[in-house]
Amino acid sequence: MARVAIVTGGTRGIGAAISRALKAQGASVIANFAGNAEKAQAFSAETGIPARCWDVGDHEACIAGCAEVAAEFGPIDIVVNNAGVTRDGVLHKMTFEDWNDVMRINLGGCFNMAKATFPGMRERGWGRIINIGSVNGQSGQYGQVNYAAAKSGIHGFTKALAQEGAKYGVTVNAIAPGYIDTDMVAAVPAPVLEKIVAKIPVGRLGHAEEIARGVVFLTSEDAGFVTGSTMSINGGQHMY
Ligand code: CAA
To answer: Does a structural domain hold residue 239?
Structure first.
């Protein structure tokens, strides 16, 4: 039986590459999305991967969304918590909404999705949760107190839940991407981005597929002894 996998924010950017890569490995993939229905429809039409809409920052919506997915496709074995937003700005200009949106969606989303799926994985004795953190959660980033705090929180969340899942066959790992050539990074002002890329030893932005290959490994049977880890895929930007 194919493993059932949910990828949050799975119809665009890094998430879309992860959805495709897991499908290519034989998983039954469902891509969650929040806002861009047109892109999600186009993604489903092109890939054959069903897309389902809910806000990962909304606790009840995650519980209901995952229950519907499980009823339609079977128990959820793999969750990739990829959905995330930026609301960049220096602290003295950042609003509470900018802070709260990022904490609610990026970090709260991991909790909400785990609450909806981890108990079942634990009962069935097998599961994989992959949380997408960030180099900026490891190193901090000027103009991102909200995002760096949420992503850093994801790394702590990962290590704590890994301890709870270990003896039940549920592994919980994080990937910390560097700057990847997605719409999110394209929104960084060009002169700022040029300076950041100049400090990446590999000398370029990463590709979404390079993150997806890490996810494929961490979700595989072969990775059963890997838990609580953070895989940094950042072109050498931050070594840790
Ligand atoms: N370190 C020190 N000082 C910095 C700095 C840095 N990294 N970046 C900017 N500054 C300074 C500037 O030199 C400037 O100083 P002066 O006023 O003395 O000239 C001052 O800060 C203000 O800079 P800006 O004009 O850029 O300020 P702004 O308010 O217009 O914009 C900002 C601030 C929104 C933070 C903008 O600099 C920005 O977008 N930075 C990029 C943040 C970033 O990397 N985001 C990543 C998004 S992608 C992502 O998050 C994915 C992932 O996981 C990697």
So the answer is: no
Q: Which two tokens stand for residue 89?
A: 């700005």
Domain that holds residue 81: 4-228
Question: Which mean pLDDT values do the consecutive 10-residue runs of the chain (240 residues) have?
Answer: 96 98 98 94 98 98 98 98 98 98 98 98 98 98 98 98 98 98 95 96 98 98 97 95
147 is catalytic: yes
CATH of the domain at 55: 3.40.50.720
Residues with CB under 6 A from ligand 1: 86, 88-90, 134-136, 141-144, 147, 177, 179, 184-185, 188-189, 192, 196
Q: Is 234 within a domain?
A: no
The pick from 87, 142, 181, 182 for probing ligand 1's pocket by mutation, whose C-beta has the most ligand atoms within 8 angstroms, reads 142
**d(CA 141, ligand 1 centre) in Å:** 8
Instruction: Please identify which of the residues 147, 168, 179, 240 carries the catalytic annotation.
Output: 147
SS3 call for 223:
helix
Note whether residue 22 is domain-resident: yes
User: What are the distances in angstroms from CA 92 to CA 43, 95, 133, 140, 234?
Assistant: 39, 8, 25, 17, 29
Which residue out of 88, 136, 154, 200 has the highest number of ligand 1 atoms within 8 Å of its CB and is therefore the one to mutate? 88
Q: How far is the CA of 86 from the centre of ligand 1 (A)?
A: 13
Strand partners, 78: 5, 128
Cα distances (angstroms) measured from residue 15 to each of 21, 48, 65: 10, 15, 18
**In a domain? residue 235:** no
